[in-house]
């Protein structure tokens, strides 16, 4: 049997994409409240621009706070404001996850629910209580929570008044927030992730291609450095508060292949791995910047604000486990191609050996095994796949059923490859599929891009009953968990 009895089978969601209740019980607005929703209706970033295209002074009759970059527009539907209303449905949702036999449920804590502006001294008691109730509910059902401390949702106030992660002060605000989480939920939560897909800052630089020059790289690498230090300090505090805590990094995992055997391609592909995948993993797992970091910085004349104390913090704040998302592979080539595909923060040539999802993401289960085996050899830390799944259109039939055999096929193929990696010696301890309950897409703001075992009746404009329905994959995954991954 590949999967041990204590293997942590489960699923994952994120606060900003699921909770809703964006301004209830004292929660402050988060960056993601106004920036998700690209293809639904409006541009992703709602900025204060006046008629002449210059930074505006007034919007919707309201004066703009000094230094503000984002606006909440009355006539626009923000999908994250309601999410799938997990805030009011969590008991029902966790009961459904328990019915499938979940051992682990990954979710995130909304920073602005605990610290509405992000820079307060004391947390919002109602926010603290909400997550306590959620974790108690998990405990009642014997489900281990896996908590992401930051899932893209920096409080909007910190963005507007401090410049977000460009500012070193964010380290202290984050550490205060993380410390509150470790203290308040000690005994209820053991598994933690400091930053979701921390390498996305780099992925975004890659995506912008030639448009991302020295200035953007300087900014990106500096933001990342502050996040690395914040993460390392959080790891140290988390261990002091409870030595049982298992704290992980979380990397956006993509398997990159060279487009041809041209040595230029082989080298370009290796550099892609270093920049996109190893740069963050090395700092968080080994506690220091890798040798190739110098080359990356020099390419863009990057000069980082790094103190001796930062370096010591990085050394003392190595993570206990490596976790990652995996949806697809991508091709890196130096040759001209007019058949490009993009998905999940990566763009590359089309791979003729693979099939693609409706959103153009390459389906590559073997790529998952490649990633698992390579990363385990590099770090030799326990691994978890904390996001994996197929974003697809689902149809709710009149009798309330949803026949999502395409999703079952995708997950089955990936689980098989995980099993083989385990047989080959990889210490894989958990698997939480993405969006186990349908939720708002982070990339597009759509509801119709669904990942779940549980269907939520809500459309792209926010209409619907928010009722929950079991998909065919719900019954299938229950069987998979029951049989410890044998009955696929
Ligand atoms: C990851 C994010 C998730 C999630 C997922 C799927 O990058 O960590 O928040 O949303 O991708 O992406 P999408 O929602 O764009 O389909």
TrEMBL record:
It comes from the Bacteria. PROSITE patterns: GLYCOSYL_HYDROL_F1_2 (PS00653). InterPro entries: GH (IPR017853), GH_1_N_CS (IPR033132), Glyco_hydro_1 (IPR001360). Belongs to the glycosyl hydrolase 1 family. This is Family 1 glycosylhydrolase.
């Amino acid at each position: 049997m590949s999967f041990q009895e204590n293997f942590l089978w489960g699923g994952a969601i994120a606060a900003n994409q699921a909770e809703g209740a964006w301004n209830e019980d004292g929660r402050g607005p988060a960056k993601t409240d106004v920036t998700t929703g690209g293809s639904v209706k409006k541009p992703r970033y709602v900025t204060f621009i006046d008629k002449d295209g210059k930074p505006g002074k007034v919007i919707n009759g309201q004066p703009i706070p000094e230094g503000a970059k984002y606006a909440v527009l009355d006539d626009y539907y923000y999908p994250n404001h309601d999410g799938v209303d997990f805030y009011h449905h969590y008991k029902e949702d966790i009961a459904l996850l328990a019915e499938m036999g979940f051992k682990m449920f990954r979710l995130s804590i909304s920073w602005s629910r605990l610290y509405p502006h992000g820079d307060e001294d004391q947390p919002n008691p109602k926010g603290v209580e909400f997550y306590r109730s959620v974790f108690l509910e998990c405990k009642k059902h014997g489900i281990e929570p896996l908590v992401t401390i930051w899932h893209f949702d920096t409080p909007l106030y910190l963005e507007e008044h401090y410049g977000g992660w460009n500012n070193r002060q964010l380290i202290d605000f984050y550490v205060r927030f993380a410390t509150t989480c470790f203290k308040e939920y000690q005994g209820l939560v053991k598994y933690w992730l400091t930053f979701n897909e921390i390498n996305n800052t780099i992925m975004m630089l890659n995506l912008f291609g030639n448009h991302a020059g020295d200035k953007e790289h300087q900014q990106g690498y500096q933001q990342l450095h502050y996040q690395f230090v914040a993460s390392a300090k959080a790891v140290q505090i988390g261990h002091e508060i409870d030595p049982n805590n298992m704290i992980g990094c979380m990397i956006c995992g993509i398997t990159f292949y060279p487009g041809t055997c041209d040595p230029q391609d082989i080298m370009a592909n290796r550099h892609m791995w270093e920049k996109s995948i190893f740069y963050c993993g090395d700092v968080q797992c080994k506690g220091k910047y890798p040798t190739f970091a110098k080359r990356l910085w020099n390419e863009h004349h990057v000069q980082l604000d790094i103190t001796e104390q930062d370096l010591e913090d990085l050394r003392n704040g190595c993570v206990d486990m490596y976790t990652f998302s995996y949806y697809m592979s991508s091709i890196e080539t130096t040759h001209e191609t007019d058949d490009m595909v993009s998905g999940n923060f990566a763009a590359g040539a089309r791979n003729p050996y693979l099939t693609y999802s409706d959103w153009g993401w390459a389906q590559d289960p073997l790529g998952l095994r490649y990633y698992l085996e390579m990363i385990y050899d590099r770090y030799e830390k326990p691994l978890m796949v904390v996001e994996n799944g197929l974003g697809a259109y689902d149809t709710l039939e009149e009798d309330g059923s949803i026949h999502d055999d395409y999703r079952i096929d995708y997950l089955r193929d990936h689980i098989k490859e995980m099993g083989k990696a385990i047989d080959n010696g990889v210490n894989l301890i958990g698997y939480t599929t993405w969006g186990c309950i349908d939720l708002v897409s982070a990339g597009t703001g759509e509801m119709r891009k669904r990942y779940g075992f549980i269907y939520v009746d809500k459309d792209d404009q926010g209409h619907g009953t928010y009722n929950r329905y079991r998909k065919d994959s719900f019954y299938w995954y229950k069987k998979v968990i029951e049989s410890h991954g044998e009955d696929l």
